[in-house]
Amino acid sequence: MLDRIRQFTRSPQGRRAVEQLRRASADPRRRAQAQRLLGRLRGRRR
Question: Structural domain boundaries of the chain?
Answer without folding.
Answer: 2-45
